[in-house]
Specification:
DUF6816 domain-containing protein, 36% strand, 6 helices, signal, mainly beta, DUF6816, 292 residues
Amino acid sequence: MLAMKAILSVCLIFLFLVCGKEAAAGELSQQVPVLALCVVRVASPTGDGKLADPKGQRLANFPQWEKITSVRSPKGDLIYPDWMAGNWQLKSTLIDLAAPLAPDIVTPGFEGNRRQLNQPVSFPVRFIKQQLPVSGLKLIPRIDTKSPVVVADRAFNSLNLARTYLGDRVLSVKVDPKSPNRQITLLKGNLQLVSIVTARATETTPDNKFITTEVFQQLFKGGSNPYFNSVESTTAYRKLSTSNPVIEADQVTAVYLSPQDPDYFKAGSHPVALYRYRLEFFPSQVSATPKG
């Protein structure tokens, strides 16, 4: 159980988290990118708040992050630029990590995650175009007649991410049909990782970088003691002029303690673990959904 928590708290984050990546609750969310592309779906293009402070600067300040970023509650899913649509083979490499409050506070699995440094992993992801439902009070949502938007295929991306690290211990990933910002990863042994997006913002810079920030609450259930934490994932995507890769991204995942943690007040608003990833997107023809 402890080993599973160490792995899971790094993945989901969800992930997403990937998705961030960063799940037993204490480790999947710290070992792999949470990735906004690994978390849920549906929104309006103007539904999310713009970034209150420049996130590109926040990335540049790594590892000097002092508190969780200030962003708005999400209204639907994260909408990506059109150039991210399609099937991709994602190469993710952990290039740096930090425990700002060590040796006083070190999260489960952090030292073990050093073995992941500069060790790339690869898995398929996809971004799809879809028509957005129009929000309203009617029981049957109307379909927006505007052009479709690009969103991440959250369940597909998250399942591939989790299985890359945990193999067949991951049974399935489910997106809550009643709440697009809630995702559940089911694991063998009656274990569950619940990941909820609680805040989100986006920014497009003058040099055409697309920067996203998402904040997640994570709950790992199934053991004698449920494990909670908060995860912030900030990612700057950039379309390249090359064909291999086509897109690259700089991602930082920050892990914060929840109020249930005995070290919560000692940590205050400071992150207890930081992970920096280099993401590279290569064209792929894979489109089949993995079983699960």
